[in-house]
Amino acid sequence: MHTHKYRAVCLKVFLAIALTAAAASCTIKPQITVHVDESGDAKFEIAIEDYFIEVVKDFQVFAEEDTDVTQENLDELAVELNSSDYTSDAFFEKVNDNFYSGSFNFSDLEEFFNELKEEDDENLSVFTYEKRGFVQNLNIYIDIENYYQLKKLVPMLEDPEFAMFGPEENIGVSEVDYIDMIGFALGDEGPPSLRRSYIDVVIVTDHPIISQKGGTLLSPNKISFNIPMLDFLLLAEPIVKSVTW
């Protein structure tokens, strides 16, 4: 995959979604299925609250570039993902202004993660995967020290409109003060929307799950990691999730 081209496409495509995430007015639901041979697929849904659509429209009046996400933008992202040696069948859809969905297949999860690394990064610590014999393990670890890796992987996090709401700009800010800031920036609907918003990462495996940390088992082969958006935006404590099967 051409990393710099991928960044440029993602930045344009997901700017409006980044603004939404920054305002914590959405739910993000990715689901990753991993098979024994390390192949699998990833699916996601992003649902945006009605009131924030108007906030985005107000922002667009002052934006230097068009922040509207079009189906053409999403198609460009799919083409870029399909150019990778390890991903295929990428498809992204803007169902309406409030809802986005997408999916892609991967042939080797470990190599896919390796492909996401920057050349100057020896380790990608926010996501790690390994297979030893028949045992597979997936870890998520996000703190203020490795947050820069997420910014490289997800260019929208570097956008100034997101950064002002993100953890690096709010080190030491209390939860109460942060919620007050959201209310000032987005009005009375901002704080309750923030409390309702979350990221829900679901992992599906071929074999029964042996152990896990920070999740909720939905079935012997399925686990959910629920991350309140406020926890992600402040990173006052590391986000630590893991599953072994």
Number of strands: 11
Count of domains: 1
Major sheet attributes: 7 strands, mixed
Helix content: 25-40%
Q: What radius of gyration results from the CA coordinates?
A: 18 Å
| Number of alpha- plus pi-helical segments | 10
Order of helices and strands: HHEEHHEEHEEHHHHEEEEHE
β-strand percent reads 25-35%
The spatial strand order of the largest sheet comes to 3-4-2-1-7-10-9
Q: Which structural category fits the helices and strands?
A: alpha+beta
Low-confidence blocks of residues:
3-24
Q: Give average pLDDT, whole number.
A: 80
What does the overall shape look like? globular
- Distance linking N and C termini: 29 Å
Model description:
With 245 residues, the chain is an alpha+beta fold. The chain has one domain (3-244). It contains ten helices and eleven strands. It has a seven-stranded mixed sheet. It has a four-stranded antiparallel sheet with strand order 5-6-11-8. Strand 5 and strand 6 (135-142) form a beta hairpin. Helix 1 packs antiparallel against helix 4. 28% of the residues are buried. Mean pLDDT is 80; it is low at 3-24.
